[in-house]
Amino acid sequence: MSQNPNIRHALTVKRADDFAQWYQEVIAEAGMAEESGVRGCMVIKPWGYGIWERIQQVMDARIKEAGVENCYFPLFIPLSYFAKEAEHVEGFAKEMAVVTHHRLIGDGKGGLVPDPEAKLEEPLIVRPTSETVIGAAMARWVQSWRDLPLLTNQWANVVRWEMRTRMFLRTSEFLWQEGHTAHADRADAVAETLRALEMYRSFAEDVLAMPVIAGEKPENERFPGAVATYSIEAMMQDGKALQAGTSHYLGTGFAEAAGIRYQDKEGSQALCHTTSWGVSTRLIGGVIMTHGDDDGLRVPPAIAPQQVVILPMLRDTPEDEALLAYCEELRREIAGKSALGEKVRVLLDKRPGKATQKRWAWVKKGVPLILEIGGRDAAGGQVSVVRRDRLWREDGKVNFTGMARADFVAGVAAELEDVQRSLHGEALARRDAQIVRGITSLEALAAYFEGEKYPGWVECGWSRPGGAALDEVVAKLKALKLTIRNTPLGEAKPEGACLFTGAPAVETIYVARAY
Amino acid sequence: MSQNPNIRHALTVKRADDFAQWYQEVIAEAGMAEESGVRGCMVIKPWGYGIWERIQQVMDARIKEAGVENCYFPLFIPLSYFAKEAEHVEGFAKEMAVVTHHRLIGDGKGGLVPDPEAKLEEPLIVRPTSETVIGAAMARWVQSWRDLPLLTNQWANVVRWEMRTRMFLRTSEFLWQEGHTAHADRADAVAETLRALEMYRSFAEDVLAMPVIAGEKPENERFPGAVATYSIEAMMQDGKALQAGTSHYLGTGFAEAAGIRYQDKEGSQALCHTTSWGVSTRLIGGVIMTHGDDDGLRVPPAIAPQQVVILPMLRDTPEDEALLAYCEELRREIAGKSALGEKVRVLLDKRPGKATQKRWAWVKKGVPLILEIGGRDAAGGQVSVVRRDRLWREDGKVNFTGMARADFVAGVAAELEDVQRSLHGEALARRDAQIVRGITSLEALAAYFEGEKYPGWVECGWSRPGGAALDEVVAKLKALKLTIRNTPLGEAKPEGACLFTGAPAVETIYVARAY
To answer: Whose CB has fewer CB within 10 Å in chain A, the N or C terminal residue?
Structure first.
């Protein structure tokens, strides 16, 4: 985090001073979201929603490529569906929005109240996930082995009543996708669980430029009822972990509860093995806390609603016309180029207002490349450009570079791809520098995490305790406000002992404070 | 509607026998949607949702092209927002889903009930539209003339409690887009209202191949509180009208209620003029009733999730491998072509099952081109193809044509474009043939619409009565189960008298029974 005293940053709060406050300022100043007046629900503004649309578009293409088909299931779920689940699933969460009436009526005092005549016989729940209704649909749709695998996905809004909310990270209503699949056997279902996990891992790395560790969650962090839960875990700039996506192998338990059975090739009935996997608008929170700096957001080009913004330095004089014509021609040339496998997204910002004011608005939004074009540039066939990820010079000036327009256009794709790579490289170097190894006792762990700050993650050996032994570990960690994040996939068995039990370690885990 | 006795159609119900039942069968057999177990809410299955995704994608590009930005607003709206509206707006609908609790609790008998401790202080309404919250946001976002026009759009689910529901046409929950814009003056707002209307008109015609009449609704059919409401009206095959999209000029009334004010260039405060416009999953119902036939759905290529399906005639023999390789090569060649401005969407259907069974499944889904490839075709470099819109020969055989593979690939784009054009042409000819002119008395109108069937629309003169005179007309029409659809835009003032008042006609209207 830059400390150059020459630089006057665009935000009033620095990451180093108050990370939570800084996070709110980034969101407000970038025009990404705001409070809605409805408890725990946000308004997602164009720049925030544009990033979500980009995430959806790229992720959806990868989901479809895997043969998964999108459906849409109802917003409301009858209460009785949950009664069954609550019985079977320990840890079932009951904080949900409950619909009890279907009509309003005047209260005789100029206001409205729920009409007592229009009380529902059975309350409806606003879906916290569509797990139960999708299970019921799968039971209808699967008859024989020929129907398997059944691969479905839904993009939707869901609601979980949250007491403490934070924009993008934890809101009562959020947007997500939930994949649900049914398979003939364990091997096929586990393969799908890991395919989804790998899809999330590569999406986070390649598209969000956000380094993640893909691995299995410990038993105590499993999705209630799952046989195995996998996650991708990202490190935020304050050293905390963010669970950015999960994939669950559910065994046959959910299929049994929902009645998802098939006739196999031999003619006998068998239970399906099911999976589920999801990511949400939480990813946007991860992008902010991975790439944002003291000047606002920095958006990786792959998900930037605009990758290049052109700011003409208008002066309200007759020369503006020629300047605008030059900029429009430049825009067309850039829009004709492709970067990261797509046409370059470029905006010519002709709105009224001073160019410098507009520049800072775009800096705070984090657009990867900003061009400022004055009359002299237009006359000389030049452009003046700054990369958002290299905003400042040592002397505290904004790092604009002049170059021939043709050179800029010829190099714009390479430049955007370099921004994408650089953001990932920067985040990866920071993450790796903030993972500590060699802590071998609970006392040393407590000492490392002492104080208000969470300097990063601890990587240590794990003997995979279960039952009461695990509960004890979890309780000790909880007292330190720490959690076990996951066991990275594909790592060799570590040397040495488990930090918590002293028994020989069988795998590696990450310990961190988490969002 | 074909009456050839040689033909054995794929559906059990014919349009001519029971249109409503036929509609349900198309949806079920095409795998578009099904009942969800939640009153009035449907499950949209992959083929139905795929069509919606196509509609969204093409419409969204047109919305963005017009400079409108997407946002996302909360699902829940505090009750108090509606109390204000109910006071100001006559005809305010009160059938809404009301959330009163935020937690469930065990009832001690193994069931769950809303937790009385978790009753909300103020009930929340599941949005029937986001009009009120968007208005509140606009009031925050608009300060000066520089912020105008403010052009926003939302893609979302909304809920209106419906007593009688029909899939896609009228469901309690449905998916839609709602555009909301704020402008400095009347002229700009009216221009935006008409731009959205024209966007809908051309979308319906070019993309859905669904002929529509774009016009202004009569006063009694205006959106409550609007100054003017415009619609696109399509004729279904049973002669009824479907309102397929609306665009409203709201004047300054909504801006006043929400406090959307701006400082003009002279420094004084002024109210904005606002608009709103929307289309929904109802469009899919329109597509079914415009293009479906007695063999199921026919999807216009522009919105078909798959435009070409290849069915290899597998025999479970070693020759299958060569056949599949041939089909895969064919698929690749077709996928490399572009039609209607996009890459051709082609599927090689390798699932187990007999090719004829699979053929009829695709016929009922309405995929524009179906290829059946046998071993002999593969050996001879041939394909066998049928157009869904020209399915039958006179002799009752399916209208397959053999041709060289290279010729098919070279012509696939032209063929798809011809299907798109043909479907539109067929629907247009039918619509125009079912519009009757020259009816000049209420008695003749009643006689024309006598009986159970609605042969089409009546075009007649209209003197634009208001107040009690209009109420009287509406009541008379209601007794005949008829409504005024709209006044087409851009038509010359008609000759003659108003059918209802006898006064000189000032405009043309369409009278029809409607969905």
So the answer is: N
Residue A476 domain boundaries: 435-512
ipTM over 0.90: yes
Task: Judge if B148 and B240 occupy the same domain.
Answer: yes
Domain count within chain B:
3
Q: Which residues of A fall within a CB distance of 8 Å from B79?
A: 104, 112-113
Section B118-135 average pLDDT: 96
Query: What pLDDT, in 10s, does the model give residues B337-367?
Result: 999 999 999 999 998 888 899 999 999 999 9
Give start and end residues of each alpha helix (H) in A203-275: 253-258
Q: Please name the member of A95, A111, A137 whose beta carbon is closest to the beta carbon of B83.
A: A111
Regarding whether A324 and A246 lie in a shared domain, the answer is no
Q: B504 touching A, CB under 8 A? A: no
Tell me the nearest-neighbour CA distance from A456 into chain B, angstroms: 34
- Give domain status of residue B177, yes or no: yes
Cα B221 to Cα B218: distance, rounded to the nearest angstrom: 6
Closest by CA position to B457, among listed B435, B488, B433, B489: B435
pLDDT at A213: 98
Residue B505 lies in a domain: yes
For B53, which of A70, A104, A111 is closest by C-beta distance?
A70
Which residues, including other chains, have CB under 8 Å from residue B225's CB and lie 6 or more apart?
Answer: B88, B89, B250, B253, B254
Instruction: Give the minimum alpha-carbon distance from A171 to chain B in angstroms, rounded to a whole number.
Output: 11
Report if residue A98 sits inside a domain.
no
Give the tens place of pLDDT for each residue, A74-95.
Answer: 999 999 988 877 766 666 678 9
Region A218-235 average pLDDT: 96
| Distance between start and end Cα atoms, chain A | 21
Q: What is the pLDDT of residues A166-180, one digit of tens each?
A: 999 999 999 999 999
Residue B1 has pLDDT above 60, yes or no: no
* pLDDT single digits (tens) A351-391: 888 889 999 999 999 999 999 999 999 999 999 999 999 99
- Chain A interface, mutation test: which of B43, B64, B171, B173, most A Cβ atoms within 10 Å? B43
Quick check: B159 contacting A, CB < 8 Å?
yes
Give pLDDT, residue B496: 92
3-class DSSP state for residue B445?
A: helix
Nearest to B98 among A76, A95, A114 (CB): A114
Q: How many Å is the Cα radius of gyration of chain B?
A: 26
Tell me if A76 and B82 make a contact (CB, 8 A cut-off).
no
| Three-state SS annotation for A65-117 | HCCCEECECCCEEEHHHHHHHHHHCCCCCCCCCEEEECCEEECCCCCEEECHH
Q: CB-side exposure of A122: number of CA atoms within 13 Å?
A: 14
Q: Number of A to B CB contacts under 8 A, please give it.
A: 199
Using a CB-CB distance cutoff of 8 angstroms, which residues of chain A are in contact with residue B83? 110-112
- Tell me the CA distances in angstroms from A268 to A260, A263, A272, one per residue in order: 14, 5, 13
Cα distances (Å, whole numbers) of residue B267 to B143, B144, B261: 11, 9, 12
CB–CB of A98 and B99 under 8 A? yes
Does the pLDDT value for residue B199 go beyond 70? Answer: yes
- Residue A480, amino acid: L
Of A76, A83, A102, which has the smallest distance from its Cβ to B41's Cβ? A76
Same domain, residue pair A287 and A310: no
Contacts of A174 (CB under 8 A, 6+ apart): A157, A158, A280, A281, A282
Choose from A47, A102, A115, A349 for mutation: most chain B CBs within 10 A: A102
Looking at chain A, which residue has its C-alpha nearest residue B350?
A146
Q: Look at residue B274 and tell me if it is in a domain.
A: yes
pLDDT at B366: 98
CB-nearest to B82 from A72, A83, A112 is A112
Q: Does residue A413 sit in the same domain as residue A479?
A: no
